[in-house]
Amino acid sequence: MSVFWMPILEKVIHMLEVKNLTAYYGPLKVLHDISFEVHDKEIVAFIGHNGSGKSTAAKAIFGFVDRRSGGIVFDGEDITGIPPHELVKRGISLIPDGKRIFPSLTVYDNLALGGYLRSNRMDGQIKKVLHLFPVLKEKLRQRAGTLSGGEQQMLAIGKALMLSPKLLILDEPTLGLSPNYINLIFEKIKEINKQDTSVLVIEQKIDKALEYAHRAYAFRLGKIIFEGQAREFRKDEVRRMLLK
User: Fold this and answer.
1) Which 8-state DSSP code applies to residue 145?
2) What is the pLDDT of residues 217-227, one digit of tens each?
């Protein structure tokens, strides 16, 4: 009797599913019927030139642009039209470009504000953040505005992690940073992902994003022109298309 062994395929769990999303800025259509997804425990990159629509796609999830059509499902639940503060409660954290910290407050106070919804274990979560970003531990009582650009970005990420999100969305996290800080931020993103947090990172630095992402979507003029495994984007013909 012959026995045939069939490979067991791991079921893909969708953390985020966005289908047929169309959005406007006033009368201007900025997203054209796009669909994308983030799987559980993976890093997804949105890449493309400035103004291609990648940041707008993330903002549309939170209703920060005029979403005219499309559905959004997060962790098996339809969240289309749910206000931003409710999305945060459900486990989505967005770090917009520009870091969005409180410069006049201390590092500790910024982290505490990030965990405003926690009813307990505040200090325990701060310890986890400081373990991830040990440089912040030395500057807990320092005003956030006196930190370097790279340190401020670490604080912004740490603040977003205070609520232990299931999905972390980072919009241009390396903008304006030195090469050393760029590498460090991406290493921290990888470490966050290994702690079972799905990550959606929006980046103009294509090579660096593809180095760390599992999958990627390429944007141009409000449309997704290519999607797939990050390694597929490294092929010469795809790179030529993306850099047009």
Assistant:
1) G
2) 999 999 999 99
